[in-house]
Amino acid sequence: MSTVKVMISDRQKEVKIPTGIRLLIRRSCHAVLENEGFDRPSEVSVSFIGSDEIRKLNREYRNKDAVTDVLSFPNSDTGEYDINQDTGCAMLGDIVICVSRAMEQAEQFGHSLRRELSYLTVHSMLHLLGYDHEAGGLEQVRMREKEEAVLTKLGLPQGESYVFEDE
What we know:
The protein is 43% helix and 17% strand. The chain is an alpha/beta fold.
């Protein structure tokens, strides 16, 4: 079993991050690596950001002038990752999540913010590992199946609605 160091930062003021979310993000990252058989020590950065910042990043890196839910910045497109010389960990990349957009989507889809944030983390981790759904077809189906397998393992299966009092 590999270890993953997940560095989490909250760079937004729009939404108070509920208790337990940081642990859920770490569990989500670990579950993806375990599910994928990624057995090297690794690290990933996850940042919670506001709608203005994610819109700017989306415009800069994807030429889309719109707020989005999550962006992934993989450190490799070949499966060969740089190694952090201080820790010996493979540096997988960076994930940025717009928490206010995640809240909107959780409400839209009728599930908890916890499930939505876990889904966005799992989705992005798969991008960091080289998966892509942009072209649709079989790759999109394959990625979606992997997402749901991990979410089910985490106790957050599709179609379930988890309502917590602090949400």
